[in-house]
What does this fold into?
Amino acid sequence: MSRRTAGTCEVGSTDSAHYRRWTEERVRFNDVDMQGHVNNAVIQTYFEVGRIGLGLLGECPPEPDLGLVLAQILIQYLAPIPWPALVRIGTRVAAVSERSCTMQQALFLGPRCMAVRGAVVVSIELLSGKAVAHGQRRRTYLESLHRSEAVISRDAPMPPKAPPASSAPTAVRNRPSASQPRRRIASPSGSGEAEPAAGGANRTG
It folds into this structure.
C-alpha cells in the first residue's frame, strides 16, 4: 500500500479541547509490565478501543463488500501509566480522502496527557484485499465526523479529575510521603527507627 494511498499519519494534540468523542478504559492488573507500568503494546489496544468508539463498527452504515484496515500508526509515549487507573481516550477524524481516513487520538489520566497517536485506516475490497474508494455511505459518515471536528470549541468534553488516592493499593496508600514529619523511637536493640509523626495522613483510630 503506497504512502499516497494511505495518507499522512500525524499524532494528535495533547490538548483535551481538541476532542469531542471520548472512550473510557480501566487499567487492569495484567496490563502492567515488571516495572508496574502499562505495557506499550497495551496502550495501542486502548487507542484501538477509542477508534472503534467512533462508531465504525456500529453507527457507520455497512458496506457489505468493503472493509476498513489499519494502514499506519504513529504513537508518542509521554508518561508511564500506573495501575490502578481509569484512562480516557479522545478521538477525532482529522482528514478524509478517497480511500483513507486519518484519525488523531490522545490518552489522558485525569487532566494529564499520557500518550498521543495518529492512525490511517484504508477501505479495502474484502474479496481481493486491495485498497478501493470508500463507499458513498461510509464516506458521507466519515465526512460528517470530520466536519463536526472542524470547529474546535473550549466547551468540548474534558477528561475527569484524577482518581482519588483511595483508589490506590493499600500498600501505596499507607506509604508515608517524603514531606511527612517523622520521629525516632527506640528499639530493643537501642537503634532508632523512624515512624510517621502523630497526626499524619496515615493516622488511624
Observations:
- Strands lie at 21-26, 66-77, 86-96, 100-109, 112-125, 182-186, 192-196.
- The two ends are 66 Å apart (CA to CA).
- DSSP finds four helices and seven strands in the chain.
- The longest strand covers residues 112-125.
